[in-house]
Write a structure and sequence with these properties.
Elements lengths: L1 E6 L5 H9 L2 E8 L2 E9 H7 L3 H5 L2 E5 L2 E12 L6 E8 L6 E10 L5 H4 L4 E4 L3 E6 L8 E4 L9 E2 L10 E2 L8 E6 L3 H18 L14
Parallel strand pairs: 1-4, 2-6, 7-10
Antiparallel strand pairs: 1-3, 2-3, 4-5, 5-6, 7-9, 8-13, 9-12, 11-13
Amino acid sequence: MKVVAITRQAQGSSASRRLRRSSHVPGIIYGGGADATPISIEHNPLYHALRVEAFHSSILDMELDGKPEQVLLRDVQWHPYKPQVMHIDFQRVSADRPIHMRVPLHFTNQEQSAAVKNSGGIVGHIMTDIEITCLPKDLPGFIEVDLINLESGKPMHVKDIQFPAGVKPVLRAKENPVVVTVTIPGAEESSSEGASAAAPAAAAKPAAKPAAKPAAKK
C-alpha cells in the first residue's frame, strides 16, 4: 500500500492546526539510522487507508518528497469525537533488521472442528492479534490459525499455532498464552446442579450423637 507525504517545514501547535484546517495530517517518520522527519499527509486518502486492516500490519511504500521509503505504521491519534486523524507516526524499515509488529489473527475451520461439530462447543477468542518478530521481507499481513483439530476441554495456546517461515511470536520466558477456549453448553450447569443436590443431602444427614460418658465409680 502506498502513502504520499511531504516534509513539513513549519512545526508547533499553530502550524499543526493550520495543516488540519487545510485537510492535511501532521506526522513524523523516524528510525532507519536517519533523523526524525516531520511530514504532512492529505487527510482523506489517509483516513480511508486506515480503515483497511492490512494498512496497520504491512510494510507500506511511502513517497516522501518524490523519493521512495519503506515504512511501518506505528501510532495514530484520533480526534476525541470527530472522524478525524490528528497525528500519525511511521517508522522506517531496514531490510536487514528484524522488526516487531502486532498482526491480526484470522481463524479458520472453527465450525468444522470436533469441539463445535461433535460437542456443540462455543469457541472463545481470547486473542485477536499477536506480536511477532521477523525480517521485513517475511512480515505477514495476518497469522492464520487453523482450528480444525480443536477439541472440547483443550484450549489452544500460542505455541500451538503454525507460524510462517521466518516468523516468531514475541514471548517472555516460559510464556504460552491461551489463544482460544472452548465452552460446552450445559457442562457447568450440570456440575452446579450436582453440587447443589449434594448440599441438601449432607444437611439432611443426622449428626452423630456424642459418645456417652462413662458412669462415675462409686
